[in-house]
Amino acid sequence: MVRLLTHNLLACHAKDCNTNNFPLQFKDVQLEIREADFNPEFLKGFMPKIDWKALVDTARQLGDTSLPLEQPEMVDDEFLKNLHHILLEIHVEEGSMTCPNCGHVYPISNGIPNMLLAEHEIG
Amino acid sequence: MPLRYLFHFAQVHHEFRLPELQSISELHGISYKLPNEAKDRDPRRPFMVVELESEEDARILARRCILIKAIYEFYAQGSTYEEVHEVNRQNEHLWKRYIEDTSFRFLITSSHHKIPQSRQREVIESFAYMDFRGKIDMKNPDILLMCFEEYDDKPGTTLERHEGDGKFRVVFFGRLIEEGTARQLIHKFDVKKRVYYGNTSMESEISLLMANQTLASPGKFVYDPFVGTGSMAYPTAHFGALVFGSDIDGRQMRGKQKVPGVIRAAQQYGISSHIIDLATFDITNNPWRCGELFDAIVTDPPYGVRAGAKRLGRKRELSERQRELCLQHSLSPRPDDQPYIPPTKPYELSHLAADLVLFARYLLKPGGRLVFFLPTVTDEYEEVDIYSMLCEGMEVIANSLQNFGSWGRRLVTIRKTTLKQYSPPTFEPAQPPSDEPAHIPAHKDFREKYFQGFKKSDDKTEQSSLYFVNP
């Protein structure tokens, strides 16, 4: 768990951390690859929500270079299969995510990220 | 021309029946028409004659609606058998094609009554004019003809065996099209057979009804912000949707083994790849980067009977010195197995419900649905309680009561009707306009009312002391 789809949707939300708070930086990660059902309709519907640069950068950090730097306007099956693999089949099981701005560390254990804030970080 | 079908409904959760029919029809683009007269569409009665455009639509509904036991092609109804036979003869064009060479079985049954064997034969023989020549096959007939006598339910009375036989309210007659196969899912998702559950897990039939209210289907993205042990996630994922769950308390999702409990239960049902992710956070301090992500939000918020709702924060203000100590505690390094646990405070139910609607408006795509349970005090509930928590662009489309006597819970379905984009909610208590007193819904302080047995109390001191009693 912590698929790259999820990683692409989570930003640091500590108090007053509003800029440069995304994407969170993976650290000390343990990866697992697990197959998921391919659903092109879901992927096409989800594409407008993706922060493309964050997704490509993160995928490259984890060793997958199959995505183009620019989000293509026309999509073919091969592209969708690569996108499917990156969004849904790479799971970060252990490690952490660090905010590039405030440095808050969100730990991941057994695939579940702890996104809770400390007392002094809430509004 | 629309065709008439006889729907046999399960005699449970009657207020959920029509909303479910509406939802599944909308999901599959099916148009239907209910009977004109109120007494004929009373959801407490077992049968209803509904107009559909095709037999295929009837099959789709029977395979997905949890509350449908079976759907029949409608041949006749009447308050006497004479009436039934007269209508049935007029409808000969519907059954003529089965006369020549179709094996059949003929069944007669009733609601709230037992028909004696001798009269069952009598009734079956009275249909002899249909002159079906195919063989009678009790095991694998080509068609099943069903005659159903509806008797009035007389709760609390004990009747002699066969007492009042023949004094039925109405008789229906038709041909079976499809058994309601979705009802088997109630057993498949039975909490007792699940490898992981907790004391707040939702019973399977209700969680399936909730999943149907979300219009769950392949390609949809659904979120449960109080996912707990995942009861709503499983049926929603079973219908093909992808599910995301979050909870302020990670222990409910994780359980005690390495593989989180929710994932283990999803594996049991063969749907673990549909659980997109689980995350620990408080919805009032959430990490969502943007809105308009989900097709539906489905949840059973904690309302305090088994578990009270919590949000980050502190009940009491701290002194300067205490605050400094807490800050140092949260920043100091600690071993992995003893993570920092931030303090939480109670989250009052009416505040939570209003926040949930705002949160859903932010996170739902246009046309998306929020489906959730709201507990209410039966004697105090007013319809305005639901409407007072709405906001611009969110509209109630269903509100079904599950009645437990002095209290009950309402499954509320709200649709996002606006295309407008909203900023994330602040989760601050709403400031009522000062010139008029704000409406206080009956679900406010539900937990306190529950533990007082829903008595009306003038003694305010007793009320506040009860607040801290743990169940």
From TrEMBL, chain A:
Organism placement in taxonomy: Eukaryota, Fungi, Dikarya, Basidiomycota, Agaricomycotina
InterPro entries: Trm112 (IPR039127), Trm112-like (IPR005651)
SUPFAM superfamilies reported in the protein's UniProt record: Trm112p-like (SSF158997)
GO biological process, one term: tRNA methylation
Name of the protein this chain belongs to: Trm112p-domain-containing protein
One family name in Pfam for this protein: Trm112p
Family per similarity comment: Belongs to the TRM112 family.
GO molecular function: protein heterodimerization activity
Subunit comment: Interacts with TRM9.
Automatic annotation (TrEMBL), chain B:
Top-level enzyme category: transferase
Keyword tags: Cytoplasm, Methyltransferase, RNA-binding, S-adenosyl-L-methionine, Transferase, tRNA processing, tRNA-binding
Annotated compartments: Cytoplasm
Domain tRNA (guanine(10)-N(2))-methyltransferase TRMT11 N-terminal: 4-180
Keyword flag rRNA-binding: no
Superkingdom, natural source: Eukaryota
Gene Ontology terms, MF aspect: tRNA (guanine(10)-N2)-methyltransferase activity; tRNA binding
EC number annotated for this UniProt entry: 2.1.1.214
Limits of the Ribosomal RNA large subunit methyltransferase K/L-like methyltransferase domain: 193-311
Signal peptide: none
PROSITE patterns with a match to the protein in the record: N6_MTASE, SAM_MT_TRM11
InterPro entries reported in the protein's UniProt record: DNA_methylase_N6_adenine_CS (IPR002052), RlmKL-like_Mtase (IPR000241), SAM-dependent_MTases_sf (IPR029063), TRMT11 (IPR016691), TRMT11_N (IPR059073)
UniProt main location, coarse: cytoplasm
Single biological process term from Gene Ontology: methylation
GO cellular component, one term: tRNA methyltransferase complex
Similarity comment text for this entry: Belongs to the class I-like SAM-binding methyltransferase superfamily. TRM11 methyltransferase family.
Protein name as it appears in the record: tRNA (guanine(10)-N(2))-methyltransferase
Species whose genome carries this gene: Gymnopilus junonius
Lineage: Eukaryota, Fungi, Dikarya, Basidiomycota, Agaricomycotina
